[in-house]
Amino acid sequence: MQARLRIRSRFAALKSALAVAPVAFLALATPMHAFAEDLPDVCTALKAIVAAKSFSTLDAAHPLMPAGAPGQGTCRASAHAYDCRWQAHWGADGIVADPLQELGADIAACFPDVRHDVNTATRQHFVIHANDEGGTRAARPVALTATIDGPNALRLRVVR
């Protein structure tokens, strides 16, 4: 009699597990969506910086900095260089645990014709041959260098 009860209880447990399995599978298989309006618009800031004819014309009161930087850093501009520094968090944010690698990935994603020629743990370097308003290739390329600038700090230097 006890053997039959054990078999029935095991069968009931298996039946319950099989009933829950499809629901659990669907919950895990359903992709999570991130909508564009929920994400910081890094590309808009980076493209505005690169497209500026003179970096000194960029608004000093509202510096263009990559996501995660507003209100936490400073930018300096001259005719041919735009230099920003800000505090970054190195905690895991669900995407990349290293802000320098994340910034490098953002730069690569924003500019389809970028050349990524340096990728180290402390430095990312890119060269962009930007087009002017007429669609012709600009004579001078734009170099973007992202580096670690001290403890918990990043630096982005854009030079034309």
From TrEMBL:
Keywords: Signal
Protein's recorded name: Lipoprotein
Source taxonomy: Bacteria, Pseudomonadati, Pseudomonadota, Betaproteobacteria, Burkholderiales
Domain of life: Bacteria
Leader peptide range in chain numbering: 1-36
